[in-house]
Write a structure and sequence with these properties.
This protein has two domains: 1-211, Rossmann fold; 219-319, Helicase, Ruva Protein, domain 3. 44% of the residues lie in helices and 16% in strands. The protein is built from 14 helices and eleven strands. The protein has helices at 8-24, 29-40, 55-65, 81-85, 119-122, 126-131, 166-169, 183-194, 206-217, 223-235, 248-264, 272-283, 291-295, 300-310, and strands at 44-48, 70-74, 86-91, 96-101, 108-112, 133-136, 139-142, 148-153, 172-177, 242-244, 288-289. The strands form four sheets. Strands 2-5-8-1-9 form a five-stranded parallel β-sheet. A hairpin with a 2-residue loop joins strand 6 and strand 7. Helix 9 packs across helix 11. The chain is globular and about 70 Å long.
Length: 319
């Protein structure tokens, strides 16, 4: 844990965590980095990518490294809300109802193929993702710290899926898109599979994650950077090709994400590049294009790129 302004423990443990996860995952360093940023910021992540590119393996490796409990839920059309949050079960021996906790009572939960469950089941995560608690039969139960949802969805196979409602999508701090590995990475993956099983070391624990979150809050953000964030968010709402712009949560994602990125880059102040580097992750799931723009082939990432090119970038300001 930190002493005074000493952040060396943050840098050392972050580097160790990246190294440990790298034993299980070849490549994807930027994806892993952004997932860690989200966890340190108490945020959730939507992972989009085709099957078989190690989304589950990555989530499990991160949980092991952070010494966090990990559970995976396979979302299916017949999954019920009670299958996620739990239910009250009558105990005949005690002559009373007892809570049978669902898998949501964990630190890191992988909601695999979240868009395969119907809206009623998806909505079981809404309270948990926002308030870090669940309500069962009128009683509220807190969730452990940290509580992070890593949800996956397949961008190609859309048959039999239910689009995530905007209220739920907006609760994800980042949306990260995973690509296929490069040729060299593919080769290293095959070599890794031929080796004996590895064992990941526990680098951090929940208390230290909370300590990192406190350190993130101390990172300096100049008023000009704050204006820069607001200008980007406002620009998403004033375009003719955008039907729905970013919510205020997009600005919060920028704020905390940029501070976390600065801290992990061993700086105690935010620079514009911290904001720009997170723009696609923080905004691509918060912007809805007009039907006309979609028919014309406009992509959300194109809109974000245009906004970044048009909004004036402030000079980096130290405290």
């Amino acid at each position: 844990m930190p002493k005074g302004n000493d952040r060396e423990w943050v840098y050392e443990n972050y580097d160790s965590a990246m190294s440990e996860v790298g034993k299980a995952i070849i490549g994807k360093e930027e994806i892993i980095r952004n997932i860690l940023i989200s966890i340190f910021c108490e945020g959730h992540v939507l992972l989009e990518g085709v099957p078989g590119i190690a989304k589950t393996r990555m989530a499990n490796a991160i949980a092991q490294t952070l010494n966090c409990d990990f559970k995976r839920i396979q979302f299916t059309p017949d999954l019920l809300p009670s299958d996620i949050i739990g239910t009250m079960v009558y105990d005949s021996n005690l002559s009373k109802f007892l809570l049978k906790k669902g898998p949501i009572f964990t630190n890191i939960i992988l909601a695999d193929e979240i868009n395969r469950a119907p809206p009623k089941t998806q909505s079981a995560l809404l309270e948990a993702m926002q308030e870090r608690q669940v309500t069962i039969d009128g009683t509220t139960y807190p969730l452990p710290y940290p509580f992070v949802v890593l949800a996956t969805q397949n961008p190609i196979e859309m048959e039999g899926t239910y689009p995530l409602p905007e209220a739920q999508v907006d609760r994800f701090l980042f949306k990260l898109v995973l690509d296929y590995p490069t040729r060299e990475e593919e080769k290293e993956i095959l070599k890794l599979k031929m080796k004996q099983e590895y064992k990941l070391k526990k680098v951090l624990d929940p208390d230290e994650i909370q300590g990192i979150n406190a350190e993130i809050g101390k990172v300096y953000l100049d008023p000009s950077i704050l204006d820069y964030i607001v200008d980007i968010i406002t620009a998403t709402r004033s375009r003719t090709d955008v039907q729905l712009g970013s919510s205020p949560r997009g600005g919060i994602a920028f704020l905390w994400g940029a501070k976390a990125r600065a801290l992990l880059d061993k700086r105690d102040y935010v620079i514009p590049d911290d904001v720009k580097s997170l723009a696609y992750h923080a905004l691509r799931h918060r912007i809805m294009l007009n039907p006309e723009a979609e028919l014309a082939g406009v992509k959300v990432d194109d809109v974000i790129a245009d906004i970044l090119n048009s909004v004036k970038v402030p000079k980096a300001m130290k405290p």
